[in-house]
Amino acid sequence: MPTPADTADHLSQLMLEFYEKMASWEHSVVKQTGLTPAQMHTIEMIGHHQNLRMKELASRMGITTGTLTVMIDRLEKGGLVTRQPHARDRRSFHIVLTDKGRRHFEAHHHLHLELTREITALLSDEEMRHLETGLVKIMERF
Questions:
Q1: Domains of the chain by range and CATH?
Q2: How far is residue 115's CA from residue 102's CA, in Å, rounded to a whole number?
Q3: Residue 75 · residue 101 · CB < 8 Å
Q4: Residue partners of 67: CB distance under 8 A and separation at least 6
Q5: Which pTM value belongs to this model?
Q6: What are phi and psi of 24, to 5 degrees?
Q7: Residue 128 contacts by C-beta under 8 Å, 6 or more apart in sequence?
Q8: How many helices (H) and strands (E) would you count in the chain?
Q9: Distance between CA atoms of 21 and 15, rounded to whole angstroms?
Q10: Residue 58, Cβ density class (10 Å: 0-12 exposed, 13-18 middle, ≥19 buried)
């Protein structure tokens, strides 16, 4: 019977391999858009979470607001996002996808859905519920 240390070592190895395969897939599909993976991740986060303020968006992405400001500047220059003044806080802005940004988001989101369906096709309904529960718990730690 494997020890907890053996199990942790094995899970660590599996997560690393899964991350590398996902990153490789992500790079291959993003390369076709002319955007960087970081830019596409920013567009994805905005697309999934409408009307986020800079601080909220940075927190969800696990980056500093300074790093995010540089990213938003580039995406805004490319016509993919726009800053809209916050209704109650004059010091902050909501980051919103433009039509062009929305098209990028929808195309990329569709690819993510296809990949997720392909990856999870081998799982039973119960395994899918366990995977979802486990991922939610893991994400709460970050």
A1: 33-141 (1.10.10.10)
A2: 20
A3: yes
A4: 58
A5: 0.80
A6: -65, -45
A7: 120
A8: 6, 3
A9: 10
A10: buried
